[in-house]
Each structure stands twice: as structure tokens, then as C-alpha cells.
Amino acid sequence: MTENTDLQALLRLMAWLSPAFPVGSFAYSGGLERAVEDGLVRDVASLRDWVSTLIARGTVWNDIVLLAAAHRAYADAEALGSVCELGEALAGSRERYQETTLLGDAFLTSARAWPDPVFDRLPRSVVYPIAVGAVAGAHGVSLEQVIAAFVHAYLSQAVSAGIRLGVAGQKDGVAVLAGLEADIAALAARGAVASLDDLGSATIQADIMSLRHETQQTRLFRS
């Protein structure tokens, strides 16, 4: 029975963080497009540096901490509300705010295919990592697995954006994902024991790129 439950949780996690799940993440680059425009990301090596820094010390790390907090608090409406307010406050630019809230709203809309009382405990607008964390927690998905899948989904999208922006090829992109497997595992273990006291980032240049993207005239992505 436990094996069947674990398998069911894994299948749901695979569905929720699949590129086919209709959240629209393909439309966002998280400032990467501006970084390419300004020459900060020029090739596969600098693309790998960019994404690996963000997952370890930037906005993605903060997303991991928020996801973990929501996963633990999925049964507590008041705690979820507080985490949601914090998640919105941490959005450092208009586009970052729009990206994380629109992805969160789209995720919750689609995830209702798996009915659960957690949807009634969440505020009307929820940032993406909190939406993922709360729903996964409610369905009994392991926190470490959720974090690993969440980070892998981010990296897959970022690498795909890099390919579309012409700084890497498809084989290069796969190599980046393969090369960061150990980093993903380490982040999953670190994030699973993290608390809100562990929030913090040191990627000012990436934050500036997100702000500058708002005024970029020609662009492929919404952020």
C-alpha cells in the first residue's frame, strides 16, 4: 500500500512539474534574456554559471525556502497566508512579481484536477513556489523530491531559454543538466531542512537584469 501511495505521489509530481503542465513557464527567462543582450551570458559555460549561481544563491534558492515553508504549512491557512505575503514581498521587480504570481495562479488552476481542501486554505493569489509546495505537501509528496523536481524544472526552462537565445545548442543544454545533478541533490537536501531564516540572495547583477528587461525593446520572453 505504501509503495502504491509513493508511486502515486511521484506520478503527480511528474505531472505538475512537466513542461507539458499548462503554467506557461516557457514564456519567461527570469532576466536571462537581458543578460544575453548585455553580453553577461555568451556561451554554454556562462549559461551554466548563471543558472548554477541562481539556484544556490539567488531567487531560486529563496523559492526553495518558500516552497519548503508552504509544504510544511499546507494544513494551516493562517501560516500559508503569511508565507504568501512574504513571497510576494520578495519579488524584486515588476516582471519578477508578474512571473511568479501568474505561474502560481496557473499552477493552482490546473492542479485542481486533483481535488483537495488545500485550495480553500490558499489566498486568491499565490506565488509559484508556494503553490507547488502547498499542493505537494497536501498530497503527501516528499519535500526533498519536490525541491529536486522544482529545481530541475527551473534549470530545464532556463537551459531551453538559453538555447532559444542562441548561446547554447541542444547537446550543450543536456550536458548542463547532467553536470548539475549533484548540485540539485545537494540543494534538495539543504532546502528540506531550511527555514524562513535561511532566506537571502547575493545575485544583484541578476536582479538588475530583471529590472532592465522591463525596458528592453526587442524580446522573446516576458521576463
From TrEMBL:
HAMAP family: UreF (MF_01385)
Stated name of the protein: Urease accessory protein UreF
GO molecular function, one term: nickel cation binding
PANTHER family referenced in this protein's UniProt entry, alphabetically: UREASE ACCESSORY PROTEIN F
Subunit and interaction comment: UreD, UreF and UreG form a complex that acts as a GTP-hydrolysis-dependent molecular chaperone, activating the urease apoprotein by helping to assemble the nickel containing metallocenter of UreC. The UreE protein probably delivers the nickel.
Main location: cytoplasm
Superkingdom, natural source: Bacteria
Gene Ontology cellular-component terms listed: cytoplasm
A Pfam family the protein falls into: UreF
Keyword tags: Chaperone, Cytoplasm, Nickel insertion
Compartments reported by the entry: Cytoplasm
Species per Swiss-Prot/TrEMBL record: Rhizobium grahamii
Function: Required for maturation of urease via the functional incorporation of the urease nickel metallocenter.
Annotated transmembrane regions: none
Family per similarity comment: Belongs to the UreF family.
